[in-house]
Amino acid sequence: MYILLIAAFVFIALSMTIYLAKRYKRCPSDKILVVFGKVGKGQSARCMHGGGALVIPLFQDYMYMSLTPMTINIDLQNALSLQNIRINVPSTFTVGVSTIPEITNNAAERLLGLAPREIESMAREIIFGQLRLTVASLTIEQINQDRESFLSAIRSNVEPELNKIGLYLINVNITDITDESNYILSIGKKAAAEAINTAKVDVAVQEKLGSIGEAEATREKEIRVAENVAESIKGQKKAQAEQRVYVQHQEAEAVKGENLAEANIADYNAHLAVKQAEALRLGEVAKRVAEVEIQKAQYLAEQERLNAAEVVQVEINKRKIEIDAEAVAQRTRKEARGEADAVLMKYEAEAAGVQKVLSAKASGYQALVESCHGDAKAAATLLMVEKIEEIAQMQVAAIRSLKFDKITVWDSGSGAGKGTTSTADFARNLIKSLPPLHEVAKMAGVELPEYLGHLSAEGSDTTKAPVSSTAPPAAPVAPNTPVIR
Description:
With about 475 residues, the protein is of the alpha+beta class.
């Protein structure tokens, strides 16, 4: 039994060892092992160059990326240089997957699983664009004469873009550079012509120096001969004279050669001065054009800055106006709400007061009716009795302010001979025009009790109503008597 358990344990351990050994992946020197899946927080993959790693099943997987360099031929045609001259730049670029950790992670994220042809196509597009950009920033002379600077510029422009996809630039090889307008060939011819002219000038100078030396030597020789034969015969003098003529002729030839050489030198210097002046003129024109472009750019930048400042100020003013308007509207709404609340509270208070007054009156009327044993008419009579004195005072007040000494009455003499005056008739009729108390009570639907008096047959009220002491004496006034004040 124990033997079986031990054997099972050994079998399981051996199986696990074999399984783990199969899951342990080693990385060759010419490849990069990329483990992806659950590799750590914030990481999309784990890249290793050399060594090995245990790939956890279900949670991780792995792939290899080759480090074998790729050679890409770039045949750049009709690229526009800084001088607006189109040139052809055939070149060869050697690139490969980088082993720098940061760049390798970029390769794992962008190139993993792609075929070499697809990677080469992607790199070709990047190199092609950056090479054209580099050519556009240089002149023909910088590209053709200083190849080292040209290659450095290409590397500085191409390599950062290749690093973004995980590649790095191993080597750049530029072959023969040509142009459609034969500008580079003309530069070579110009340099050759300048070298030839310089050589010709040097030869002419040396020939001039040789002729001068030869003439001086000959003249020295003749002088010595003339001194030696000074005492010779007359024939020798003739020969000496002929020899002197010959020497003068040689000197003239030497001077002629010297003048010709000086004329050639002056002509070369004139051509050189013309070319220098033309180059200076072109340089000044380019400088002025550049200054004009700089001033235009500065003007546009200043205009944009002023426009931005003005727009910002307008936006600030607009926002301020909106905030002020919102504040005024809020305050107006609050004031209106407060006024509405005040009016509502006022009307509610008035309604409550009126309701209380009506309730109190209703309670009083109810108590009055109950005190009259439920006789509402008797209760109304009592209320009317309370108002009789006030009504009488109102009747007295109606004629109290009349000034009878200021009243003049004209009539047709109907009152003459009766022992009364027209003014007395006017006063009597005025008092009779006031309604009796019983009639006022009847208008209100109330029958006054007998102890308050009654109307006589002539219609006069015999009610014993109180009369104010300030009321004028009653005077009979004829009816329909016109009154003019």
